[in-house]
Amino acid sequence: MISYTTPTVSLEELRATLNRDYCDSSCFLLVDENSRKHCLPLLYTLDHLLNLPASIQNAQIIEIPSGEQHKNLQTFIWIIEQLIEKQADRKSLLINVGGGLVCDMGGFVATCYKRGIDFFNIPTTLLAMVDATHGGKTGINFENLKNQIGVFAPAKAVAIHLDFLNTLPKEEILSGFAEMIKMALITSVDFWKTVKKADLTDFISIKPLVLEAIEKKKRIVNRDPVEKSIRKVLNFGHTFGHAFETLALENKRDLSHGHAVAMGILCELWLSEKILNFDTIQREEITNFILSKYPKFPIQEADFPRLIEILLQDKKNSHQEIKSVLLEKIGYPQLGFNCSEELCLEAFRAYIAL
Length: 354
Description:
single chain; about 350 residues; alpha/beta; Rossmann fold; Dehydroquinate synthase-like, alpha domain; two-stranded parallel sheet; 15 helices; 10 strands; about 15% strand
């Protein structure tokens, strides 16, 4: 059975692995314009890709444009064409250096190219570090719908280096922090209390939180590698979050994945109170904390029909029923609740009223 809990390593450990196992492999680095400009120089300055086989020192760079609108079949095909043009073979190695989009896309490409080549992830955003690069999910969007095409395929390793966070604007740090909030709410009151106190300007102090969030996700993935049951709790906040994200993408409005998830958590907490009697005072406390970090993504009644359509198209659904992960209380997520269209509309109205 394939393990989807990819080893988490340091850059030094990654270098040792490359030296040991990939001496004869041609290497390709997948980046976007941001990770190429801000992260590749740091990677080489730190000497982590030096003192390696020449094929890796001289890795060929494949650059894709940043932005969720480019996580699509056209970009996928273009990367494949680049690998063919650059004569990548079945022993070639792809190293994805960037955020969740680069790592999701690169993992999917590596899995499909010549029926599969090895790949490593070097996440450079907080979102990718704590969530996107762990658990073996790869894929692309289709017709503005999130991750409709993809496979489960684990990277050989994920190399974590928090210095990359110094290259990010505040908005990107907050995007990743939303996934840490989600992880805390679905796993532990103690972790939630710690996450609430996190100083997002001090990356040394949050390193233990990042590593704990990663380990908590790995434990869940270990129990259910391909998301048949318990792993679905990781989708808390994502049913409504993906609806907000898709609407923003269609209307060419800026909304990061993490910001969308934070807004999704607000809606799904409201549903948790209505359906599972989640504590009202605690819901209000969490809501106020999230709103102190993230401005509301504005929606109006005119958006409701499209939002419902998107909810019905969510890949987690079955039999045209809108399914959502809800919380009985912090650390006690519950799966598979069918939320009627009427209740979802109520949740949207409650969200507008916040």
